[in-house]
Amino acid sequence: MPGSSDNSDRIRSQPTFLHGRLVATIGDWMRTHARRRLERRIARVVARPIVGASMQFHVEWHAAGVHPWDEDIPAERQAHLFTARLLDDTVVRIHRMFTEFTELDSLHVRVLAPTPDGGTLLKGTISRAALQACQGCRSAAMSLKLLGVDYRLRDGRLEPLA
Which of 56, 71, 114, 144 could bond 149 through an S-S bridge, CB–CB 3.0 to 4.6 Å? Predict the structure, then answer.
């Protein structure tokens, strides 16, 4: 039967002519019709309206350490500067993400200590509505609390969350 399979392969792979017109191979015909069926299916799926959608981001970063210019000041003052800078930077990043991604509904934030074994300093889930509600707040610490971000502050220093 090797001869019959060779003939059938030749018939399928070579184009034929009928009344002077090129007739496509069986494979071409099948691909064309499969593509048309797929396009019809896609059109039906796309035509259905979307009832609702939501977009969330999960963002996590390491806090920046103490600035090199501040390395020669006392440790207590370094801790206060680190805390103030981290809280301010976090509020700015949250505002920037909601501004740049207008489709964003909620944002889950986790800020890790500068050292790998330092733990989580800040975490929380912020909604766009909460962000709009605390627009007038001038304190970064109060803004983060109103936004729903958890952190532990003791004597002006951030401590890792449990």
Answer: 144
Question: What is the value of pTM for the model shown?
Answer: 0.66
113 secondary structure, DSSP code:
-
Residue 126: HSE in the Cβ half-sphere, 13 Å Cα cutoff: 30
Residue 38 and residue 140: Cα distance in Å, rounded? Answer: 54
Q: How far is CA 51 from CA 48, 54, 114, 128, 139, in A?
A: 9, 11, 43, 20, 39
Q: Please return the burial class of 39, using the count of CB atoms within 10 Å of its CB with bins 0-12, 13-18 and 19+.
A: exposed
* Bridge partner residues of 107 (DSSP): 57, 126
Cβ atoms of 66 and 141 within 8 Å: the answer is no
Question: What is the Cα–Cα distance from 60 to 70, expressed in whole angstroms?
Answer: 25
pLDDT digits (tens, 9 = 90+) for 94-136: 999 999 988 889 999 999 999 888 899 999 999 999 988 888 8
CA distance 152 to 162: 9
pLDDT 10s digits, 8-40: 444 445 555 555 556 556 667 677 777 777 777
Supply φ then ψ for residue 25, to 5 degrees: -70, 165
